Amino acid sequence: MTLALLVDCDTGIDDAFALTYLALREDVEMAGVVSTGGNVPAAVVHRNNLVLTELLGIDAPVALGADRPLVEPPMFADDTHGPGGLGHAVLPEPTRAEDPRSGAQLWVDLARERPGELVGLVLGPHTNLALALAIEPELPRLLRRLHVMGGAIHHRGNTGPTSEWNIAVDPEAAQRVLAAFASAPRLPVLGALQATESVHVHGEVLERVEQLAGTSGNPVARILADALRFYFEFHESDGFGWSAHVHDPLVAAHAVTGDFASTRPLAVDVELTGTLTRGQTVGDELGRWGREPTVDLLTHVQADAFVEHLLSTLEAGLR
Ligand code: BDR
Ligand code: CA
Questions:
Q1: 154: annotated active-site residue
Q2: Smallest CA separation from ligand 1 atom 2, residue
Q3: Ligand 1 atom, smallest distance to 159 CA
Q4: CA-based Rg of the chain, rounded to a whole angstrom?
Q5: Which of the listed residues 14, 44, 147, 193 should we mutate to test ligand 1's pocket, taking the one with most ligand atoms within 8 A of CB?
């Protein structure tokens, strides 16, 4: 059965791997892409998404999201992803058209057109999904389900000491999304840092992607290799050695296959007011809040199996 996906992302090096993986899966129909500001400004994300969807032959609407988070000024991670969002990659100019709708409106329109069918996948800040909920509060019941990369549960942050990037950029949006989707017929699946950082890839993975770029001559493989090399350089400068945490593709692959991780239900909320901990995702393990679970949390990641699955999908599809 084909899975219809709306992908909301801040492309971004690992977002680009996720988009490519999804484009190469025959069981995925890319129904839409929303460009959300995060790793780089929304307009730069949008350009990356237009170029990648064009090169990958994804014939789906690509809509530009809001240019700032709901409350705070935007922040960017060009140290991590490069000023263009894709590390050392040099992109051609896009020639395909963008969708004229806002990112939020695309969420709403696609969900209304395909009630109970569309799966949402958020790989960046939650700004545009939160804006979409303001237009259509029934989204949690219109979507088939929601998968999110975000948060750090009982794990250090990667942005603030306790906050993960996708939540830290727009904590209010993340809080609204989690609160709204807690009442969805199926709990949202949350891939937080303690799961996604177990996909910690080393030199042999970069070498395989470099080799694919060299032997295939495929422009997307070239972009991925040049982007991943930059990601390694950043992680090395951040104290992680010659390696990278490749977050988003794991959440994408689990959304499609249901494989490579388990899940467990947990009540999770977002800290909005902490003077040291704003943007932290707090998980209530002992039920002290007396609330029902709000997410299915990814656990027990089969990292080696996933990395091999990702690489073999890229090698089969981009040669
Ligand atoms: C998340 O932040 C972004 O930099 C990555 O693309 C990923 O979605 C990891 O914290
Ligand atoms: Ca991302």
A1: no
A2: 165
A3: 10
A4: 18
A5: 14
Catalytic residue among 126, 235, 245, 247: 247
Cα(2) to centroid of ligand 1, in Å? 27
Could you report the per-residue pLDDT of 262-289, keeping only the tens digit for each?
999 999 999 999 999 999 999 999 999 9
CA 144 to centroid of ligand 1, rounded, Å: 24
CATH number, domain of 233, equals 3.90.245.10
Both tokens of 283, joined, read 């998980």
Q: Does ligand 1 have an atom closer than 6 angstroms to the CB of 52? A: no
Residues 131-182 have pLDDT tens digits of 999 999 999 999 999 999 999 999 999 999 999 999 999 999 999 999 999 9
* Listed residues: CB within 5 A of ion ligand 2: 10, 12, 15, 123-124, 248
pTM for the full predicted model: 0.98
264 is written with which tokens?
A: 């467990």
Burial class (CB in 10 A: 0-12, 13-18, 19+), 88: middle
Q: What tokens were used for 118?
A: 């569309």
Number of domains in the chain: 1
CA 194 to centroid of ligand 1, rounded, Å:
13
